[in-house]
Write a structure and sequence with these properties.
1 helix
Length: 319
């Protein structure tokens, strides 16, 4: 009877809502959204311009890439910061290269990788000690960063060199450079670490890479006005959701056929993108309309527009 009662209690108990963290690059803040109400419940003031953001595997911390403001170079700084997910306070600061933009964690959470756009490097940093393990040359204007689930491979996009720098995570060295379509931005690895999707902004396409062979095996063309940036795979990996930038929408790609099956209107210049843990809601940061679009992925319908997130929504992380 106790077992049955406990099971019924667990079924009846509502799941805790996710927190959606949105970096605002012009406003110098991070907005915190409650996914149950789709309202901003807190705002975190940043020391400078936050862009890339990621949640630690234990969900206790957030890591953000924070760069100087162009009009205030002497009053702001380039760094990465750790934020306590419970208190929303900055608890640690890390050195970075010039103009850090994208950030990713290794699967064990022991290291983060940050792309330094102006420096043309990627820094690999030990989370506990704060020590920079390596600063690697990774193409021109590096932006997107991602680590494969098996912990072996790190990708960094070079948006001007049109390259993917393939980093051997064990040796902390660049193992290969792959040429892709014009202006690569975001990266999404499959869970088995065999494939990776790359958003190529100016090409208006998604490149599919074979990770082991280090080569492009498929180009998925989007709409004429689409300039893809952020992208995320559904939990079952049957769909790839792509923020289309100047296309002002989200493209939905069937990963079995590698074809666009739907396009959903969003705000002005959608950039960062993220899914709730249950995979039911998609959040899209719109950098020019200063809002976040919320999409029900079962119906492909916009169910909310959150307008008070801040100035210049850029990146999204879900906790």
């Amino acid at each position: 009877m106790k077992t049955i009662a406990l099971a019924l209690l667990l079924i009846a108990a509502p799941l805790r809502a996710d927190r959606i963290f949105v970096t605002n690059e012009r406003g110098g803040t991070i907005a915190v959204i409650d996914s149950a109400t789709d309202r901003v419940v807190a705002t975190i003031a940043m020391p400078s311009r936050p862009r890339g953001i990621v949640v630690s595997p234990d969900r206790k911390r957030l890591y953000a890439a924070v760069s100087h403001f162009r009009d205030k170079p002497s009053r702001t700084r380039d760094e990465a910061v750790a934020i306590d997910a419970a208190t929303l306070k900055v608890v640690q600061r890390y050195a970075a290269g010039t103009d850090p933009e994208g950030i990713a964690l290794t699967p064990d959470g022991a290291r983060f990788i940050v792309s330094n756009e102006d420096a043309g490097t990627a820094s690999i940093v030990d989370v506990k000690s704060g020590r920079t393990i390596a600063a690697l040359v990774v193409g021109t204007e590096p932006e997107g960063v991602a680590a494969s689930a098996d912990g072996r491979t790190i990708y960094v996009t070079g948006e001007t060199s049109n390259t993917i720098s393939v980093i051997d995570a064990q040796r902390a060295k660049v193992a290969a450079v792959v040429l892709v379509d014009t202006r690569p931005r975001g990266i999404a690895f499959t869970r088995n670490s065999a494939r990776a999707y790359i958003s190529c902004e100016i090409a208006g396409a998604i490149d599919l890479l074979d990770v082991k062979a280090n080569r492009v095996i498929k180009k998925i063309s989007l709409g004429k006005s689409d300039r893809p940036v952020g992208l995320v795979l559904s939990s079952d990996e049957k769909r790839l959701y792509v923020a289309t930038g100047r296309g002002n929408g989200v493209a939905v790609i069937d990963t079995a056929t590698n074809r666009v099956v739907n396009t959903i209107a969003a705000g002005n210049r959608p950039w960062g993108i993220g899914l709730t843990r249950d995979g039911r809601k998609l959040y899209v940061a719109n950098g020019l309309s200063n809002d976040v679009t919320v999409i029900d992925v079962a119906t492909f319908r916009v169910i909310a527009t959150i307008r008070n997130v801040g100035d210049g929504p850029w990146g999204i992380a879900v906790n």
